[in-house]
Amino acid sequence: MSKKVSEMYTETSKWKELTPGCDIYVAGTSKEFRTGDWRTDMPIFIVEKCKQCLLCVPACPDSSIPVKDGKRGEFDLDHCKGCGICVKACPFDAIKMIKEEK
Amino acid sequence: MSKVLEIRWHGRGGQGAKTASLLLADVAFNTGKFVQGFPEYGPERMGAPITAYNRISDTQIRVHSNIYDPEYVIVVDETLLTSVDVTKGLQKNGAIIVNTEKTSDEVRPFLNSYEGRVFTIDARKISVAALGKYFPNMPMLASIVKVAEVMDEKAFLEEMRGSFKHKFASKPEVIEGNMKALEMSLQEVK
Amino acid sequence: MSIRERLSGNEAVAIAMRQINPDVMPAFPITPSTEIPQYFSSFVANGLVDTEFVTVESEHSAMSAAIGAEAAGARTLTATSSCGLALMWEELYVAASNRLPIALALVNRALSGPININADHSDSMGARDSGWIQIYSENNQEAYDNFVQAYRIAEHADVRLPIMICQDGFITSHAVENINLLEDDIVKNFVGEYEPENYLLNNKTSMAVGPYATPAFYMEAKRAQSQGMNNAKQVILDVAKEFKTISGREYGLFEEYKLDDAETAIVILSSAAGTAKDAIDKLRSEGKKVGLLKIRVFRPFPAEEIAQALKNCKAIAVMDRSEGFNSQGGPVCAEVKSGLYNIDEKPLVVNYVYGLGGRDVKVESIEEVYAALDKIVADKTVGEGYRYLSIRE
């Protein structure tokens, strides 16, 4: 599945170029959509304070806290919208929000 | 246009007038005719007066209306005579067949001065004698086949035996009773 | 060899379905189409088909399940009438815009109210703009033949749209009449296997069906969908031509009956067309030049072809078996008139609303219409152009 949905369709696509019913023949297309661009505040992961309780992971609405081998890693900033819910979920103050400089 | 034989059935919901009209369509179909068999539909209510129709023709039937000037009328339940205008539109050169224990002369006064032929048959008596139960269908079917000369009587009986064998494959014990009802009816309709 | 039979319209359609042997049938019963899923479920129970029969709790669910099954790659059909079609409304649009070639046996019945179970076309006419192909049948034979042709039209790569095969409730659905059936293997070969290019259960490719389209895409999506409907006209004719080779029976976008030299004509759909043909024969025997145009395909609407066929008439009556409530007449007349607008020579047009809620259409009723057309021709003007037939004044 190397083809991207953004390569199938753009806002200049003509009607004859659309698939029947606008069907999409690739999987996981939401990954291409960089919702991280919408962010104004950015989460900072303070690794020293983290106890790896993982309470932040299911709280994230954008699945932007990757987990590997039972441990969370750095935020997926391509998709994190900066909502700050993870800050409220963390009992150990291991996440803080800062103003993002773009 | 060739002539189309038009027949109207009057019965009550649950008595099988619709089934009888479909059986007549079957019989005529098996003689090579074009047929229509259809009821006049409304909400189904046991005991309410119902009407069913047959058209029988040598050529394709295209018309899809009810029948207003039938050549034959069959009254499956004589109590309808006082509540339904059963002879409405009935052609003078046609006939009416009534299920009753009365004679045709006794029934005629209830038929709104109908001048055509009147036949009666005691379907209850025949059905109870042949089947042990009251199913007016078979006697009325045999009557119209005879009166309207839909087909040869012998061929009709053979045809019906074949169709019963198929229809009652799971309960062959009822075949003889039904055949007896048909045979008696062919004799009794007057 | 065709098989001489006598069947009701519902039985005939159920037999076509058995011969097609679809993959999935979700259905919810409603008068007068109930018998279709009833007969079909007995075919399933007796092992005559290997269809997955899905009993659902409503028509909304029936069409939802049909959409899901069809998108998954299964050839799917269902049957309904009246309020059942109304409850499918939202899903009808989804099926069409997702380009899913579902077949639906519609047994036409009036929509409430007053509540009524008898024939008229208010159900299918209400759904006329939902993007479904609509084909109307005069009798049990046509209902059967049209259903046999349905998937060849709907699944065609140029079309890919759902299709509705309509017949009149009770009048043909419950009337037993002669019919010539095709043999099972002939139908099977004619319809063929369903091999969609893309489908959800294909484990070799990923696929998403029914995505959201922003304003930047929505109009292009609709334009593409309308092309499927535009293409359907030729496909319907091609399929009919091939159907003739297996059945000997001829079908077009509409049927002309004694229309060539007709001075007056009526335009009508479904069962009343047969009654009208008897009226025409009677009037022709009296020397009157009368004819008929029976619309078979209402979606796509063959406007230009109809206009060409009617252009030499002096006056025509367009018969609507449903109300339009636009205070101008019914939907069939609106479309026929719009088809005629751009040609130079055209007949005077009167609209009759008729047969609502099962009001019987007699040969005499149709004769009345031709008498009215004679008067329009003599007066050289239509007068009241929106009339009711057989109404108690």
Given as residue ranges, the uncertain stretches of chain B (5+ residues, pLDDT < 50) are none
CATH architecture of the largest domain in chain C: 3-Layer(aba) Sandwich
The CA-CA distance between the termini of chain B, in Å, is 32 Å
Q: Provide the CATH superfamily of the largest domain in chain C.
A: Thiamin diphosphate (ThDP)-binding fold, Pyr/PP domains
**Do you know the CATH topology of chain B?**
Pyruvate-ferredoxin Oxidoreductase, domain 3
CATH secondary-structure class of chain B = Alpha Beta
Structural class of chain C: alpha/beta
Look at the structure and give the mean pLDDT of chain B.
92
* SS element count, helices of chain B: 6
What would the average pLDDT of chain C be, to the nearest integer?
A: 97
Find the CATH topology of the largest domain in chain C: Rossmann fold
CATH class of the largest domain in chain C: Alpha Beta
- Please write the string of helix (H) and strand (E) elements of chain C: EHEHEHEHHEHEHEEHHEEHEEHEHEHE
> Cα-atom Rg of chain C, whole angstroms?
21 Å
Distance between the termini of chain C: 52 Å
- Largest beta-sheet characterization of chain C: 6 strands, mixed
Could you say how many structural domains of chain C there are in total?
A: 2
